[in-house]
Amino acid sequence: MKTDCIFCKIIAGQLPTKPYTEYDDILVIRDIAPKAPTHLLIMPKKHIHDIASVEAGDMPLVARMITVAQEIAQDNDKGKKTDFRLMINNGAGAGQSVFHLHMHFLAGKQMSE
Ligand code: 5GP
Ligand code: ZN
Q1: The pTM is what?
Q2: 54 CB under 6 A from ligand 1?
């Protein structure tokens, strides 16, 4: 845990946040400022700064994030498989504002760009 990291604090239960779903290695929460009807953040419980910092040994965890996204897509919209977008911002210039690796899961509206 990185003590000044807001997502590490959420993972540690230090900030009141109801998880969307939780696994041993991954936490999924609703984005506080949703950009789509379903806007979730899939994050490893391990603190990793960004996608560029991912080391070879972390790759199974990154693969797990995608597996979790597949499971969410199955559950979303009462079992009907819907279209969805996965997004990872790397660096402030690309829109990253929280420096704890997370993947945005967006669904529920037409996304044209
Ligand atoms: P980024 O901009 O780093 O790719 O994504 C960070 C996301 O985290 C943003 O979409 C922002 O709305 C969300 N966020 C920031 N702080 C919190 C928080 O305390 N709780 C939740 N649920 N989402 C947060
Ligand atoms: Zn963290």
Answers
A1: 0.95
A2: no
